[in-house]
Amino acid sequence: MQGGYGLPFVIAGRPLEGPSHGGGGWLTVSPGYFDVFQIPVNRGRAFEIRDNSAGPPVVIINEAMAREFWPEGNPLEDRLIIGRGVMREFNDEPERQIVGIVGDVRDSGLNNDPRPRMYVPQAQISDAANVLNTGIMPLSWVVRTAGNSSALTEQIQAELRQASGLPVANVESMEEIVSNSLSRQKFNMWLMTVFRFVAMLLAAIGIYGLMAYSVQQRTQEIGVRLALGARLDQVRNMVVAQGMKLALAGVVIGIGAAYGLTQFIATFLFGVEAHDLATFVAVPVVLSLVALVAVWIPARRASRVEPLKALRYE
User: Fold this and answer.
1) For residue range 127-143, what is the model confidence (pLDDT) as tens digits?
2) 3-state secondary structure of 143
């Protein structure tokens, strides 16, 4: 495959206005490209061996391009003129029949919407266009293996050098390509995880400090309750209940704020629903358990107050 830059195009037979012309990503590929990447052919057909320099000029578009320029029509009934009159390398570009519509690919980032894309057979590209393509993006070979691709790397490189007579460089597995494309997101995820645990720790310390201070301020009150016959478990449960009311009120407010921000958060997600039920259940439960632990320690201390010392406490 080769290409990847934007090129203007015209829908043959239509006036140059409205959706009859525009720009789209351009990629020259060989037969089998869509099978290797497992890109579904939703309408029409994929490229075949007969789509060579002797065959009729053809082109395949993706669903994003079909939605944008043929919202009501059938793209398979139209032809495209790509780059003619704009770049001298495409002065001889013929009208290409649209023979297929394939699924969208998020090749510009998982958080970016798919862009209009045109696929042209490599065998039908002129020498001038090939020279232009090579200057912009080197020729790339994609090989799908049934097992571990790293074990076949040397053999694949040898076959490519023998077939093309050119050196092979920048060999990467698909796992490495995906990992590199997500490196920034992974770093941000780990950074947010650290911040999350720090925030949870600070919240626990804050709740503990608040409850410990409250217990200290109410030492005389607790002593009076114990002197009047209150049981130790009643005092402990009272402190826990009062502390958890504050914590649960904060959890409820946080859930409401998080639910309101899901529309904004959804723009950063791919393949994950912003209104994830498991997240909206698990996070409040974890926060409530952290708050319970932070409240339990001062409550236990309050239940051990000696009534006589508490009554003398100032």
Assistant:
1) 777 777 766 666 777 77
2) coil
